[in-house]
Amino acid sequence: MKHKQIFISGIDTDCGKTYITGLLAYHIRKTGVNCITSKLVQTGCTGIADDIIEHRRIMEMGLLPEDENGITCPFVYSFPASPHLSSEIDQRPFEIEKVSEMFSSLQQKYELVLLEGAGGLAVPLTNRILSSEYLKENKLPLVLVSSSKLGSINHTLLSIDYCMNNNIELKTVVYNQFPDDNKKIANSSYEFLKEFITQNHPELKFIHSNDLQKNSVFKLANLML
Prior knowledge:
By secondary structure, the protein is of the alpha/beta class.
């Protein structure tokens, strides 16, 4: 393994990065790699993070001790908003040092940790720290999740530019065909992004979510690690 931890972010909220994170973990484990998923911060729920529960469902496994004791998602806030606002409402500050400490402990046990971010790359974790700053500080490779929603081309290209301009190690773009409300838009967006990335960013890997669904032993190491 070239990396012990991979960051998974999206072009915006509700683009399907939770689904892709769980799906990647499922197939990576199928290749024999001891992989676990984690979540940087979760808002809009209490107790064990909803996204962690969804990861385990997709991975076809039960909750782990690390889930139950809060290591896989150390900060869960009740108010459904950006973490910087949710933490203020819950009166419990987000502590980046605590997050780094807990995720480091996961790396001692697991070969690979897939870390799902919150929303997009520039989501504020606090009034001073953006999600992308954690990514840069820890020098983590990035998998960016796009989607078939109207507007996803714009958001995807802006996110790629953000990575290039901020020295973020973007490795792979995953096109998640969700919500697939309009197949003409979904198929056109996929073809446009595939061509654009091939021509302008040939160093990036571009994967369709359907390929992940069809191949239980997908050669992920060659595509994103």
